[in-house]
DNA sequence: TGTTAGCACTCAAGATTAACGAGTGCTAAT
DNA sequence: ATTAGCACTCGTTAATCTTGAGTGCTAACA
C-alpha cells in the first residue's frame, strides 16, 4: 500500500506532467508549495514509486513521468470529482433546449462543442436503434419513378429515404408492397429486419407481387444502412497541438484508424454503462498506445442508447474532461428523453 | 520564347521533381535517356530558365526545382492530355450506374474513390440548388407532435425534414400552413425562399393562422439549411504522406482551413466552368501557398450544377489527376442527368 | 558559334566533439 | 527517518569538420 506521502508525490507528478509534458525532477518538485520535503527525500520516494511501477524514467538521468499504472491509480483514487454544479447543469439545459429537431444535427453539434471545450478529439455515437420497433411504414409516390419511404419507430424516431421504383411496377403493386411490409415489419425490432426481409417477407413478396426481385434489391439497400448508428467527430485537429504528437506519421496512423468509423463504432459501443476511462494500451489497439479515452453513455428514459467519448493523449486532463463528459451525457439524455417522451 | 531544348529541360525537371521531390542537378539529368547534352550545356540552359523565372534553386549549390511559373508553363503548354479512352469512360459508367439513389451517398462515394485513385485530397461540392424551383410541398403529420415536410423540386430532387409541430396548433392550422406555403413557394427558386418567407409569406401566415410565430421559427430552421450544398471530403490523410508536409503545424493549418466547409465551398463554387488548374498562390489563400488545386464542374442536362476538385502539393502529378478528374466529372454528369431526366 | 571539359567555389547535411546542466543513486552526517 | 553532499549519467545544444552534390565561369574544341 502506498503511504500518504507517496500518493501526494504521485499526484504532484501527474498534475505537473499533464500541464508541462516535461519529466518532473525532485529538485523542481521540492519547490512546490504543497511539498515540504527535501529533494533527497522525494528522490527516495520516487525510487520506491518507480519500483512499484507507478512512474517511469524516460532515461536514466531524467525526471519521472507517470506510467499507465500511475495514471490508473490517479484516476481511480486521487481524483474525487465533485458532483456537477447547479449552473453547469443549467448550461447544458440551455445548450440542448435550443430546439434542433433533427437528431443528427444535435449529435454533430455535441461533437463540435465537446471537442472545443476539452481541446481533445471527441466522438459521438448516434442513438442505437437495434431494439426499437417499427410503428408505421408509409410510402409516398413522387413524380416520376421516385418514391419516399417513411419509417416511424416506437421511440418516436423518424427516418426517411427516397428510392427509385423499378420500371415495370405500377401503383397497385406498390401498394401491395407497402401492405406486406407493414404486416411483416411492424413491431419487429430493427435489428431483426434484415433476417425477416430475407426470409418470410421475401416469400410473401414473391407470391403476391410481380417483379418483386427488382423491388427487393432496392428495399434492401434502403433499409440496410441505418443512418442512425453514425459516428460524429469533433476536433481532430486538436490532437496535432499536443507536443507528443508532432510526428506526422504517428498522427496519420491515428487518423487513419479513427477514419474508419466502424472502428470507433465498435470501440464505443462495447463501452460499459456510465462513465469509463481507458488508459493507453487498456484499449488494446495498436494506434492507441499513448492515447486515453474517456467515455460515457447516454440514455432515453433510463435505458442506454448511445455513447460519447473524448480521446486525447494519456497525459490528459482527466478531471476536467470527466466533468465535461458527464455534463454532456446527462444533457443529451434529458434532452432526448424529453423529446421522445413528449412525442408519444 | 523558349527554345525546344529549354522546354525539354523544363519538362524533365518537372517530371523528375514530381517523382522524387528532390532538386534536379545537371549531372543526374544528363544521364536521362531522352537528354543527349552534357551537364555543362544543361547548366547553361538552366541558368537561362532560372533567369526567366521558370525554375528556382532552393540554395546556391543545389539542383533546380520548378517555380510556380514553371508549373504553369508545364500545365499550359507541355501537357497534352489525350482524350479519355473508351474503357476509361466505361469504367466510370460502371461506377456510377450502381444505383445508389441518394445523391448524398453518390457524392460521398465519389470523394472517397477520387482521393483513393489520385492519392491526394479530394473535395466534392453537392449539386447547387439555387435555381431549381419548388414543385410540390407536402407535410405528413406523424404520431405525436412530429411531422415530416417533403419538398420536391423541378429537377426531381427530393428533400425531406422532420420537425416538431408547435404545441397549440391543430390539424386544420397545419393544413392552412401547407396551403399557404404551396401557394407562395411553388415555382420560386430556392435561392429566393428566405426572402419570400420573411416578407409576403409571413404576412399571409400572420393573417390566417393562429400561433403563426411558433410555426414560423420552425419553418425557418427547417428550410434554411439546405443540405444540398454540403462539401464532401476524401483522403485527407494522403496529404500527410507527402514529404513536403512532414511538419505537423503546417498540416494542421491546412486541415483547419479545409475543416471550415464554407471556405471550401466558396473556393469551389467560384471555379470556372470546365477544368481549371490553380497553382500555389494563384488561389490567393494563405494556407494554399504550396498547394495546387485542380477542379472540374459537373452538370445536369448541360447546365453546370456543381464541382469537384483535387488538392495536393504544387509538386503534383498534374497529368494523371487531370485525367481522373475529367473522368469523374463526366461520369457524375451523365449519371445525374440520366437520373433526373428519367424522373421527369 | 554552340558545346563541352575542367576547376574553383558554395552550402546543406551529417558526423564528431565538447560543454552544460538537470537529474539520479548512494553514502554519511544530522 | 531525513537530508546534505558528491560522483556519475545522459540528453541537449552549440561549435567544428568533412563530405559531396551542385554551381558558375573560363578556356578549349568541333
Report a brief summary of the structure.
Chains A, B: One of its GO terms (biological process) is negative regulation of DNA-templated transcription. Chains A, B: Keywords: Repressor, Stress response, Transcription, Transcription regulation. The structure is a homodimer of 344-residue chains. The first copy, chain A, has 344 residues and is of the alpha+beta class.
Would you kindly provide a written description of the structure presented here, covering whatever features stand out?
Chains A, B: Keywords: Repressor, Stress response, Transcription, Transcription regulation. Chain A is an alpha+beta fold and 344 residues long. The first copy, chain A, folds into 3 domains: 75 residues, Winged helix-like DNA-binding domain superfamily/Winged helix DNA-binding domain (Arc Repressor Mutant, subunit A), CATH 1.10.10; 159 residues, Beta-Lactamase, CATH 3.30.450; 92 residues, 2-Layer Sandwich (Enolase-like, domain 1). Helix content of chain A is 48%, strand content 18%. Chain A is built from 12 helices and 10 strands. In chain A, the strands form 3 sheets. Chain A has a 5-stranded antiparallel β-sheet. In chain A, strand 5 and strand 6 form a beta hairpin. The longest helix of chain A has 26 residues. Chain A starts with a helix and ends with a helix. In chain A, 37% of the residues are buried. The mean pLDDT of chain A is 87. Chains A and B meet through strand 4, strand 5, strand 6, helix 9 and helix 10 of A and strand 4, strand 5, strand 6, helix 9 and helix 10 of B. The structure holds a DNA duplex (30 and 30 nucleotides).
Amino acid at each position: 500500500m502506498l503511504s500518504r506521502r507517496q500518493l501526494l508525490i504521485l499526484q504532484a507528478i501527474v498534475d505537473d506532467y499533464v500541464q508541462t509534458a516535461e519529466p518532473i525532477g525532485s529538485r523542481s518538485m521540492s519547490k512546490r508549495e504543497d511539498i515540504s520535503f527535501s529533494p533527497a527525500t522525494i528522490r527516495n520516494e520516487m525510487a520506491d514509486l518507480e519500483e512499484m511501477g507507478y512512474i517511469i524514467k524516460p532515461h536514466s538521468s531524467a525526471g519521472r513521468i507517470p506510467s499507465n499504472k500511475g495514471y490508473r491509480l490517479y484516476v481511480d483514487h486521487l481524483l474525487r470529482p465533485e458532483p456537477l454544479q447547479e449552473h453547469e447543469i443549467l448550461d447544458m439545459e440551455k445548450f440542448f433546449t435550443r430546439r434542433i429537431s433533427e437528431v443528427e444535427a444535435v449529435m454533430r453539434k455535441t461533437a463540435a462543442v465537446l471537442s472545443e471545450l476539452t481541446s481533445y478529439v471527441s466522438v459521438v455515437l448516434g442513438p442505437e436503434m437495434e431494439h426499437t420497433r417499427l410503428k408505421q411504414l408509409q410510402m409516398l409516390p413522387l413524380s416520376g419513378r421516385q418514391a419516399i419511404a417513411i419509417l416511424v419507430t416506437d421511440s418516436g424516431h423518424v427516418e426517411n429515404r427516397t428510392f427509385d421504383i423499378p420500371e415495370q411496377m405500377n401503383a397497385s403493386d406498390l401498394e401491395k408492397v407497402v401492405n406486406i411490409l407493414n404486416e411483416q415489419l411492424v413491431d419487429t425490432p430493427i435489428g431483426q429486419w434484415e433476417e425477416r426481409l430475407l426470409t418470410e417477407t421475401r416469400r410473401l413478396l414473391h407470391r403476391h407481387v410481380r417483379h418483386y426481385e427488382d423491388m427487393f434489391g432496392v428495399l434492401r439497400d434502403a433499409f440496410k444502412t441505418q443512418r442512425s448508428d453514425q459516428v460524429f467527430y469533433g476536433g481532430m485537429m486538436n490532437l496535432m497541438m499536443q507536443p507528443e504528437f508532432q510526428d506526422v506519421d504517428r498522427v496519420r496512423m491515428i487518423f487513419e484508424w479513427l477514419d474508419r468509423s466502424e472502428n470507433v463504432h465498435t470501440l464505443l459501443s462495447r463501452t460499459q454503462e456510465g462513465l469509463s476511462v481507458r488508459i493507453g494500451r487498456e484499449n488494446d489497439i495498436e494506434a492507441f498506445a499513448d492515447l486515453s479515452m474517456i467515455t460515457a453513455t447516454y440514455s432515453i428514459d433510463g435505458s442506454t442508447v448511445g455513447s460519447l467519448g473524448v480521446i486525447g493523449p494519456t497525459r490528459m486532463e482527466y478531471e476536467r474532461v470527466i466533468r465535461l463528459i458527464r455534463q454532456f451525457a446527462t444533457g443529451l439524455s434529458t434532452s432526448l428523453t424529453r423529446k421522445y417522451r413528449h412525442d408519444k
